[in-house]
Amino acid sequence: MSPFTKSTCDDTLKSPIQSFYKSSPDAPEPARIQRLLSILDLQKHPEGGYFVETDRDPLRVPNPFQQHTNGAAIPQPASAHGAQDDDSTRSASTTIYYLLTPGNPKGAFHRNKGRTIHTLHEGRGRYVVIHADEQREGQKARIETFVVGQNVDQGEKLQWVVEGGKYKASFLLPDTEHGISEQGLLISEVIKSLYYLFDPRSFVVIVSAYSRPFQTVVPGFEFHDHDFMSPEVLHDLVSAEQSNELRWLLRTRDQRTEL
């Protein structure tokens, strides 16, 4: 819990950024969510919440993130999560379900190389984006926070974009300002490379009191193209006060053992 009475990350907030739900990964989920976990065969995700990959396109396309030196590809390590040893290609697309629940209500800080387009279906949540790609020497990175929800009159977003190279985290909010989350947060995500040279295929995510995301990644997701934020990186990117306020959104020790 942050000792500050106001947020050090967002001047518009009257209180620090904090969770409305206590993570209880070992506690049983409500019966409705348990049925969903069983029907969709969802497993725990390293970011938090649950997921299952439902499709991986057999078509392989050139890796838009491949680094080159003098025209030669730089060797990349093999992924522990099923990525092919040949890092020069990616699946054309991948699709997953992703679920946030009151017992697993946050997606920890992480970064993708690809551009991610999000579309809200239902529910409410808060996103925190740290613009690490914009950081200048001797300066701290810009922090952006916003609520996604149906109340557009109050500034809640129905659609938002996170460019590659930025760290993002999200957490479940009550359906109303002082209520509870009965429907969760449901979104779609599309991830695209800025260097993709032909028309990419679409990708969708659903998050939900659950937050239920369904996600398709273009080009196909690989852990090569993804990393989690460490406490050291958070400390380097933002001020000490901001780091203290946001550190609960880092991946926990238990989550690190799930990789």
Can you describe what's shown?
The protein is mainly beta. The protein is built from four helices and 16 strands. It has helices at about 30-40, 230-235, 240-245, 255, and strands spanning about 45, 50-55, 60, 70, 70-75, 90, 95-100, 105-110, 115-120, 125-130, 145-150, 160, 165-170, 185-190, 215, 225-230. Residues about 70-85 and about 190-215 have low confidence and may be disordered. The radius of gyration is 18 Å and the shape is globular. The protein has a seven-stranded mixed sheet, with no helix packed on it. It has a five-stranded antiparallel sheet with strand order 11-10-13-8-16, with no helix packed on it.
What's the short version?
By secondary structure, this protein is mainly β.
Q: Please tally the β strands and state the result.
A: 16
Query: What fraction, in percent, of the residue positions are helical?
Result: 10-25%
The average pLDDT score comes to: 76
Helical region count?
4
SSE succession:
HEEEEEEEEEEEEEEEEHHH
Low-confidence stretches: 68-84, 192-216
Please summarize the sheet with the most strands.
Answer: 7 strands, mixed
Q: Which class of secondary structure composition applies to the elements?
A: mainly beta
- Side by side, the strands of the main sheet go 1-2-7-15-14-9-12
